[in-house]
Amino acid sequence: MIYALVGNQNSGKTTLFNALTGSNQHVGNFPGITVDQKYGVIKGTNDQVVDLPGIYSIRPYSSEEILTRDFIINNNPDAIINIIDAMNIERNLYLTLQLLELRKPTVIALNMMDEVKANNGSINIELLSELLGVPVVPISAVKEEGISELVRVVETTAKNRSIPKVYDFCKPGPVHRCIHAVSHIIEDHADAAKISARFATLQVILDDQQIKNLLKLNDNEVEAIRHNIVEMENERGLDCEAAIADMRYRFIEDVCSKTVLKPKKSKERTRSINIDRILTHRYLAIPIFIVIITTIFWLTFGPIGTYLADGFSAVIENIIAMIETVLTNYGINQVVKALIVDGILAGVGSVLSFLPIIIVLFFFLSILEDTGYMARIAFVMDKLLRKIGLSGKSIVPFLIGFGCTVPAVMATRTLPSHRDRKMTILLVPFMSCTAKIPIYAFFTDYFFVEYKALVMTGLYFGGILTAVISSVIFNKLAFKGNPVPFVMEMPNYRLPSVKSVILLMWEKAKDFIQRAFTIIVAATILVWVLQSFDSRFNVVDDASLSILASLGKMLESLFRPLGFGDYRFVTALVTGLIAKETVVSTLEILVPAGITSVLTTAGALSFLTFTLLYTPCFAAIAAIKREIGSAVKTMGIIIFQIAVAWAAAFMVYLVAGAFI
Ligand code: GDP
Ligand code: MG
């Protein structure tokens, strides 16, 4: 058996998915994070459940809506679990009505019942179930209440293939007549295409092109349908979309008035509204955002992070020293020992020593997300983003981009229009990903000990600024048109959950450690080999005679105007394409004496700027190619990024050179 989990954003789908499967998917207090569908097996059964992205309706507008619609129509799940936020039951039922029209076995999971009860609300479950014609199970996903009952009901419903009993939501009138007339025309086509006629009818009325294509209507039929719609619009005095929405909301109002005793406006809601008076204030919102982000970076790269990183580095150094002693006592071959100690251990050790900083940064970011502040950032930024030609929804990929470009590029799938998607994909790599943190930390340790937090914050904002400027230019030149408007709901503020924060930190740490021991070890070995041997595979005493040096020297002149025309830095940039952290391990191997000996301060700033902006790693390139679909365009993006990085680094070098 396979079940689809469908519901509005923030209705608790992922929480329920975790409760059902015992898995640990990240639950966000931030709408729109779940992009891909996730599969899991329900504990104690062989049944699969799929967590689909959150949607408010099945109009054919956004990719999430299309994905959900296609999943239900094409994969034909044995049952749909429609999760509803009982605190916002009216709005949630809108999607429910559309699901009922699909005429597949459906069960409603009425979530957040704990909150309804806590705020003195109540819902007549039996009557609700009767009016909607499907089983309704009250649950609390967070408290794991009602979960086993839900599983039992879903299994029975799927086994008996019980189809919703109610699917007609209109009262006699023009809309009713129109639906029946259109339904009559397309009935046979819908049967042939194996889609519910009722669902197809409404989608056709709302001009869902894909459904129309599936139905293979002939010209006469299309004309007849159009005629019916025009007639209905005239009689009703509304366009068809509004008329249908009105019909659905009337039905919902009627159901709710009979079944729901409204909970008081919850304490949490009132508190949230009060907090928002300040945090999303017209003038204060953005300064507050900047203060919060700067404080986080200051704490991370200043007192807390450095303290932890120093301690951790000492531990790593001790371990490396121990291994070296063991190897020496064992009398191992000198070259092998050099490979292990100076190559692998030094490289991986230098990357690993940044682990505490990454954990601390993610500790803060996950708190921002969990408290609900992240969603406010999106809201506040929406107005600004609109001015530079981006949709407010782009903020989601951008914020994820501060973690890693790969999921950020994937998250652009939540954007409703192609134009917004392409712009966002192009700009996301300018958001500084976590893999670059070790590079910044490494350089600031050498050059800007006093101004660490300032340089870090400067880099982050520099990336954002570059994205803004590029966006304005693109908006004028290449991607004309307006971003699609979007609605997003503000979750209540709440205290961050320890579990969720720890989980996110652990995921990031695990990811980082895995990379350190796989990709980065491999890259380190490669760099070490290339720099230890010459082209005849003799061990070289002077690294400048190595294979690596001769390769790097070919590119040196390109980077001379940027102040780091040295094969060692060029090589570091090239290995950075494998994974950004390798820039550090490469430099650690190539410049054992410390980079201050071969680089000026202005050169360091220029190098940092280049690293910030140039093409992210191969994994990100692959993700971009996958989303854009064209190798030529992907090449174009890479060239664009390198050109921007070069130009920006050149300017930074000129300016810094004049002042420092
Ligand atoms: P999704 O966007 O539908 O996947 O929703 P999530 O699973 O990420 O949950 C959204 C928010 O609602 C999270 O902050 C959850 O902790 C919270 N939540 C989920 N289920 C419940 C519930 O039964 N009761 C309460 N009080 N909160 C819940
Ligand atoms: Mg989710």
Task: Characterize the overall form.
Answer: elongated
Helical residue percent?
55-70%
Count, helices: 30
Q: How much of the residues is beta strand, in percent? A: 5-15%
Rg from alpha-carbon coordinates:
29 Å
Task: Please give the number of β-strands.
Answer: 8
Largest sheet: 6 strands, mixed
The ligands bound in this entry are:
guanosine-5'-diphosphate, magnesium ion
Number of domains: 3
Content-based structural category? mainly alpha
The quaternary organization reads as single chain
Mean pLDDT: 86
List the uncertain runs.
Answer: 31-35
**Lateral arrangement of strands in the main beta sheet:** 2-3-1-4-5-7
- Whole-Å distance between the termini? 68 Å
Written description of the protein model:
Helix 5 runs antiparallel to helix 11, helix 13 runs antiparallel to helix 16 and helix 19 packs parallel to helix 29. The chain folds into 3 domains: 158 residues, Rossmann fold; 88 residues, Helix Hairpins (Orthogonal Bundle), CATH 1.10.287.1770; 373 residues, no CATH class. The strands form 2 sheets. It has a 6-stranded mixed sheet, with helices on both faces. Strands 6-8 form a two-stranded antiparallel sheet. It is mainly α. The relative contact order is 0.08. The N and C termini lie far apart (68 Å).
